[in-house]
């Protein structure tokens, strides 16, 4: 991978696109179990999705033809180590070898996430991310991946959005194991994820893979507020403890700030799961780069309601009509979500605020210096309307991407070490809980067609042109 080459691409995740959920000895993941259970009230699953497992060659060819030089995807842990006995599934490795062959054919740089929400079911049954053995399991699985693929993969990501994953699992309760308002388990999960991150990095460093780097992907930006009174700044601080610093400080700096630990403890959270030996491993095993997903702003104010409550863009009362949709994040005494009446919301209640891309990147630089940053996801979910040929004129998505990119490139000009950018998503795929109606792809997937026909959207051609105009930045 040439150091100077800016990476322009798009992203997917295993459960959301692969399908083939039980093919070639794949084990079940917690998402397979959840989607097949009564807890999944929609009955919609990722069993087939857009069937990337069998369409990968076409999808990667379309990326290349669209001018993209990088592809972010994730490996399904349950394909590689399907069962508790730790036996490695050669067919799983072979699938990703085929994907990498295809990337290499077109000079597409793979950016590969090791876990994107889909823990194996056998770990889920033991307590998932709150199972204290999860970090040794993760170290084992990731060492299998590092040994097999080595520096064929120049960019590895340990965990996708630990913040959002922990939050949905244990606060909102919309992701398995569907626990609500459980701050104790949220803290435990967040900590175990950072032990996982550090132990995987230790495995990675042991192999000394020349030319490969390892990072982590964060799902939200730093908290911000509409006022800078001491009360508002306190709310920002606590929100950052909760959503950002408890992940990024250990991952990037190798330690937690004592104030953060104290704030968590003073809420009555039992921190007996914290072990000095884990902290030592974190200290010695930090990331090379940050992956930053950018969707919307984390706008907060002081919590005056005294309420602790959490909903996200796909929680229950919300069907994409935008009528009742609203994202709430509130912890009594700490902070709660604020709303800026001057901005628009998307159909799922998420704020559209392009400038957050600039602020996010600048604030990351302020706290973490010149760490290389890849914008690992940025995209717009909407109801696409196709014409009789399946073509979608997704001007709304183009406008969204153009406006966000303006601010991302401005942050790069202003000194942030931005190295790449990925549209979410490469093609239409399963949107967690929202199913298939909420689409993000640059390429339409016709789910009614038995061959799951791919039709590039207007945004695909727009992006191709944008890359062409910006390939030498
Ligand atoms: C991020 C996830 C992606 C993707 C995206 C869109 O949080 O990393 O996997 O799903 O959000 O979110 P959603 O599908 O919920 O609209």
Walkthrough of the structure:
The protein has 15 helices and 17 strands. With 473 residues, the chain is α/β, with parallel strands linked by helices. The strands form 4 sheets. The protein has an 8-stranded parallel beta barrel, surrounded by 5 helices. A 5-stranded mixed sheet has the order 6-8-11-10-9, covered by helices on one side. The mean pLDDT is 95. The protein has helices at 14-17, 30-35, 52-65, 77-80, 90-106, 121-124, 134-149, 162-172, 183-207, 230-253, 258-266, 276-284, 355-368, 395-413, 458-470, and strands at 7-11, 70-74, 109-115, 155-160, 213-218, 223-224, 289-293, 298-301, 309-311, 328-331, 335-337, 344-345, 351-352, 373-377, 418-424, 443-445, 454-456. Helix 3 packs parallel to helix 5 and helix 9 (183-207) packs parallel to helix 10 (230-253). The chain has one domain (7-300, 338-469): TIM Barrel. 6-O-phosphono-beta-D-galactopyranose binds at residues 13, 16, 160-161, 164, 219, 293, 314, 377, 381, 424, 431-432, 434, 438. The site of 6-O-phosphono-beta-D-galactopyranose has 15 residues, from loops.
């Amino acid at each position: 991978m040439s150091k100077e080459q800016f990476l322009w691409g798009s992203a997917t995740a295993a459960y959301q696109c692969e399908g083939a959920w039980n093919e070639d000895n794949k084990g079940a993941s917690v998402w397979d179990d959840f989607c097949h259970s009564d807890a999944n009230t929609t009955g919609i699953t990722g069993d087939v999705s857009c069937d990337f497992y069998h369409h990968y060659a076409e999808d990667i060819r379309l990326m290349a033809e669209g001018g993209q030089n990088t592809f972010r995807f994730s490996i399904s842990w349950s394909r590689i180590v399907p069962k508790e006995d730790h036996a490695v599934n050669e067919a799983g490795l072979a699938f990703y070898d085929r994907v990498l062959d295809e990337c290499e054919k077109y000079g597409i740089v793979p950016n590969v996430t090791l876990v994107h929400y889909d823990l194996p079911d056998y770990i889920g049954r033991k307590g998932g991310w709150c199972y204290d053995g999860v970090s040794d399991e993760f170290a084992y699985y990731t060492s299998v991946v590092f040994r097999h693929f080595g520096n064929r993969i120049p960019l590895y990501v340990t965990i996708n959005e630990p913040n959002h994953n922990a939050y949905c699992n244990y606060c909102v309760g919309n992701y398995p194991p569907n626990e609500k308002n459980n701050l104790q388990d949220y803290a435990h999960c967040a900590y175990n994820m950072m032990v996982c991150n550090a132990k995987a990095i230790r495995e990675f460093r042991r192999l000394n893979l020349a030319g490969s780097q390892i990072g982590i992907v964060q799902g939200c930006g730093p908290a911000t507020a509409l006022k800078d009174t001491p009360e508002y700044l306190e709310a920002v601080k606590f929100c950052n403890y909760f959503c950002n610093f408890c992940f990024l400080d250990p991952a990037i700096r190798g330690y937690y700030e004592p104030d953060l630990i104290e704030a968590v403890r003073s809420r009555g959270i039992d921190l007996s799961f914290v072990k000095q030996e884990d902290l030592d491993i974190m200290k010695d095993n930090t990331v090379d780069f940050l992956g930053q997903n950018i969707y919307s702003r984390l706008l907060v104010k002081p919590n005056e309601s005294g309420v602790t409550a959490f909903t996200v863009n796909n929680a229950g009362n919300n069907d994409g009509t935008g009528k009742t949709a609203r994202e709430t994040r509130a912890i009594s005494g700490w902070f709660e979500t604020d709303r800026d009446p001057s901005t628009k919301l998307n159909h799922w209640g998420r704020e559209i605020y392009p400038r957050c891309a600039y602020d996010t990147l600048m604030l990351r630089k302020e706290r973490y210096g010149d760490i290389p940053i890849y914008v690992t996801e940025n995209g717009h979910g909407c109801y696409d309307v196709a014409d009789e040929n399946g073509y979608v004129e997704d001007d709304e998505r183009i406008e969204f991407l153009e406006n966000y990119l303006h601010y991302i490139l401005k942050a790069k000009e202003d000194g942030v070490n931005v190295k790449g950018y990925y549209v979410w998503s490469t093609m239409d795929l399963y949107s967690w809980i929202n199913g298939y109606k909420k689409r993000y792809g640059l390429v339409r997937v016709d789910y009614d067609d038995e061959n799951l026909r791919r039709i590039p959207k207007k945004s695909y051609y727009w992006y191709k042109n944008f890359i062409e105009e910006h390939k030498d930045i």
